[in-house]
Amino acid sequence: MEKIKRGKLPVVFESTIELPSSRRSSRQTEADDENSGSEEEGSSKKRNPSSRNQLREFLAIATVPLVLVLGNSILVPILPQMVRELGISKAQSSLVITLFSVTAGLVIPIAGFLSDRFSRKSVILPALILFGAAGVLAGFGAVWKSYTVIIIARAFQGVGAAGTSSIAMALVGDMYSGATESRALGLTEASNGTGKVISPILGAALALLVWYAPFFAFPVFCLMSILAVSLLIKEPKKEKAPPRFRDYLQANLKILKSKGKWLIPAFFAGSLGLFILFGVLFYLSNILEEPPYAINGIIKGLVLAIPLLGMVVTSYTTGANIKKNGLLMRKLMLTAMFGMVVSLGLAVFFHKTMIVFIGLLTLNSIGIGLLLPCLNTMITGSVEKEERGMITSLYNSLRYLGVAAGPPLFSWMMDKSDRLVFITVSALALIALGLVFFLIKPSAEVA
């Protein structure tokens, strides 16, 4: 049973029933807590939104990771064409994904500190503006056929990306708790996955106009997210004065020291999931254009979207149902990692049989869809609100570094052997399975 903090403003997290504002008995409050999550109150206390208003908040927050994931996935279909148009190597094209992700990964902890020091929205909104503006610069770099300008612009986009998805996760933790928080985090991860599904199709479709058109789509999506966050999100006030940087850093080091036994494996598992996901997308994008497949355009985008669709549906369903059930999370994480080991292991033998191969990649993506919402809920709930920005930022930083490592390492392994690709990632998934089994043992009810 989660404790309910008493404060000045009542808040209800029930997403399906608009509850009265009058005080209720403790027994009724406990029943509501079990059904829809505990109510965090005090000066940061959530409002008492109707189902419709809460849905609007969910969707506004979800636009942030949606914009972010477009930053990479929408470009995956055009990488082979970029090689031809700019006269660069496959490895150089992979840097368009890698540099963006490395920059984001390095800056995310700083963004997390700033969001804890000031506010979440004061970091998210400028980050979205930078993200969109850098997208325009990258587009002009492509018009000028300047690979250097594109790379510089992508680095700036990475800086902007650092202040988006990870801060949105912390904002969810600030605004909601209990089952509502799990649903919101599940929707956030599903939004991330939805972006991954639609972005290859969208990128391929836009490239039919001109190959660099996807770069100019970034400011449009950023503007939509800026309006949604500005108008629909009312961020809770901070309960305490922000700590000094030294005290803040010591507090987070203390958290890592006390909970690092399971936090570090959790960070690794989340990072590995996205390393595999983007590496596989890069691999698939390249082989689809080669004989005997010769698949291009929107059809290629649709094929790339199939595994990701499995991830989206699974991610949303998982987030909506795990609530704070730690035992269920552990079972789902173990199931996810086992499915990834099996599917990637079988891909060693069936990577040349396209229908079977796509099925195996979809099974792998379903595993990632099971894994990430559980990790998000555990990590977000592992710390108090005041330190949440840094911890979620460290987690997302490692996720970004996983994304960054995927394309170049897969490119290197593809030059050696296709089988080497899947032997390597299945072995890494097996290691992660062992870490989850032995080290990540959440309590029956996650805080």
Structural class: mainly alpha
Helices and strands, in N-to-C order? HHHHHHHHHHHHHHH
The largest pleated sheet is described as: none
- Strand-residue proportion: under 5%
Q: What's the mean pLDDT score?
A: 82
- Global morphology: globular
Radius of gyration: 21 Å
Q: How many individual helices?
A: 15
Strand elements, count: 0
Question: Mind explaining what this structure looks like?
Answer:
This protein has 447 residues and is mostly helical. It is 77% helix and 0% strand. The protein has 15 helices and no strands. Helix 4 runs parallel beside helix 6. The longest helix has 44 residues. It starts with 25 loop residues before the first helix and ends in an 8-residue tail after the last helix.
Detail the topology: elements first, then pairings.
Elements: H1 26-36, H2 51-73, H3 79-86, H4 90-117, H5 121-143, H6 147-161, H7 165-175, H8 178-207, H9 213-232, H10 245-288, H11 297-322, H12 326-350, H13 354-380, H14 385-416, H15 418-439
